[in-house]
Predict the 3D structure of the following.
Amino acid sequence: MSDRRRFGRARRLSLARRCSEIALDATYAGGWAARLAHRFGVHGHLEVDDATITLPRWRARDSLRVAFASDFHAGPTTHPRLLDDACHAIEAVRPQLVLLGGDFVSYHGRHVDALSRRLECIEAPLGKFAVLGNHDLLADDLYIVDALTAAGVQVLVNDVVRLPPPYDGIALCGIDDPVRGEPDPATVFAATGPDDARLVLMHAPQGLLGMPGTPFDAMLCGHTHGGQIALPNGRPIRMPGPRINRRYAHGRFTLPGHGGGTLLVSRGIGCSELPVRLFAAPQVHALTFVPGILRERRTAEAPGGAGGKVTAA
């Protein structure tokens, strides 16, 4: 494993941001704030979102069970019990495939060690794959990648992995973080075949700005935390970054401009600057991906023929 560095390959890493990361790590040292938030019930109670998503271009006969989680933020602002709960929830899905959306740590790469031990215990026959988030790139991303690799998690940086048969029609596209990284969606999608179902894994929804009109079947993101502190109706009080992050703060969306693909944005698990979640509960996603041909068959067989429907985001 590589020696730990204080900072990673983040773009636009100013002196002020460096000082802020060091100061916050020192202020929250020992995790006292996360313990207080957990004790007073403002740290969030984990939810499991169970959803079915159709991959229109996937031509197969069976569905695929996937666990997706993002934004663990292991470190002094996230209580270890929340990480335990999240990993147990992922295991309970009994996934064939585990996908992880980045921001594994806050403030320092060393915090990945406790999380990677938990992730190592999760089994998935088709593998565990991840992309990095902006906080991972602020910290020592090389050390984080080494720790995740040792835990059996393959980190994708502008890379494509094809799943083995009978799921080989799916191209898993891992795109680098659009906030602090060097995303290259053009190269990623050029490596897919014309008949591949594109399942995109990327940390933040603002990455859509760099791929206008590009078709995909489904995209999984995190980053937004659902605002982390929201109004009772779930509307974020504050959402940093471009407007698209507020537009897709959390939930599932159909994107006609991207070939009708489904975008899922997770509220994530942990906390970043503040160890508090209000009306933006942490979540793990239990996803069933359904082939387009299977949906067509069910629609045809439903009462009323073409009028029948299959639940899909």
